[in-house]
Amino acid sequence: MRVAIIVDSPKRDFDGALLTAYQLARRGAEAFLVPMYQQGYDLPWLCPDGVIVNYARENNRELLAAYRSLGICVMVMDTEGGVLSDAGLDAPLNWARTMRGGGLGPYVDRYFFWGSRLYEAFRVESGMPAEALHVTGCPRFDFCAPPWRRLLEFPARDYVLVNTNFSAINPAFTRSTQTERAIFRQIGWAEPYVERLFADLEGVFPRYLETLERLTARLPAIRFRIRPHPFEDAAIYERRFGQLPNVAVDGSGSVLPAIANAACVLHLNCGTAVESLMLGTPAVSMEFLNTDTMRSHAPLPSRVSTAAGSFRDLEDLVSSAGALRERHAGRHAELCEQFLHPWFHRIDGRAAERVAEQAICALAGRGQPRRSARASLFGSRSASTARLLSGVACNALGSDRASRLAGLGIPQRRAKALALEAAQSGIARLRALGGTSPGLSVARARHPVSRLAMASIRVAAE
User: Fold this and answer.
1) Digit-coded pLDDT (tens) for 17-43
2) What pTM does this model have?
3) Which residues of the chain have pLDDT under 50?
4) What are the φ/ψ torsions at residue 254 (nearest 5 degrees)?
5) Three-state DSSP class for 145?
6) What's the CATH number where 158 sits?
7) How far apart are the C-alpha atoms of 269 and 18, rounded to whole Å?
8) Over the range 134-151, which residues count as b (16 or more CB within 10 Å of their CB) and which as e?
9) Which of 139, 337, 389, 390 would be a feasible disulfide site paired with 352, CB 3.0-4.6 Å?
10) Are residue 174 and residue 303 in the same domain, yes or no?
11) Domain that includes residue 426, residue range
12) Confidence (pLDDT) at 298
């Protein structure tokens, strides 16, 4: 049994995907970690029985349809599935209705949900059969619970972590905010809403930077770590804060170790406030900078945080992190019951297990999928010259080498490549805590005809 897992942002998603691959391999399956940009070229040759994709939206309809046509079971584990809006496009009921209205349900065999709120919306409104819907939790949050939490090591402790969230107007990978606006419209947000949201972000961002400058200057004895969003351009933070003696700008690695070892987390509408709650680290929301539109776009982070209603509030909260932690501990159980469990299920370290078990159940009794050289040549999408050139490179050079060459000129491609060494060391660390017998092999997948290295990584019993 072979299962492919699409990895969108390695910085955010790699650890959870690797843990899922580990749990699949423990159950006798071959697992493949597949970079998002290489999926259409690698999957037609890997020929997995099933694929766990990172979302099901209009912009990946062609891929879902291509996988189904090859006899591959399509399963969805969203990379964004818990921090949602109250009334926007990604509000639970609206999301489910879009699934039905867009006709995407027939391309999906199983849907795995982070929590019961989105599951219930899909059960009622999506048009998908109930047996296709399962609440599993999200594997990347398994590291917030034993035994995996022991892996959240970090070289520093007791700093104030600032998690930024302005990728829409300070993008790392797209060319401009106009491109970001177009992406919002493309996935279904209404034009007036997009313009209002972007206007608010552009108005707040300068004040946000000024607030951080003032705060770090007022509290020189406190160490700050500014962590740009994975899709943000870090340069503006490095220019403004990189030379300050009490500030480090560092967005490397997973955010979870940085949160787990912080005294507190500062943010404005950032989803990492939820991970902070999972890890018991108090989060402070700079509400005096917020707007109604920005808050409603992602209301959960504000709800699980201590609100700073003014700069003075912010300074007082950061200055007394010990008292903040005590106050947060007193509210922790209530916040988890009210906000965490409905959206994120049980934070028990077993979401990857549940995904692996449901995936294996979904594949029982299915026929053999087929390979397709043509699908690989066109990236499992409609024919175009650009896709054909990429497909030829992936098949002639191996998709590993082809993706490395593409990454030389395209930073976004380079940032989303999967490092074999990270997978090997990660599996070794998971085995040390979770135990596996027999051993596991972690290596580049190989093209079945040429034997050239692929961008995908195979994890399986030796």
Assistant:
1) 999 999 999 999 999 999 999 999 999
2) 0.91
3) none
4) -70, 150
5) coil
6) 3.40.50.2000
7) 28
8) bbbbbbbbbbbbeebbeb
9) 139
10) yes
11) 2-143+348-461
12) 87
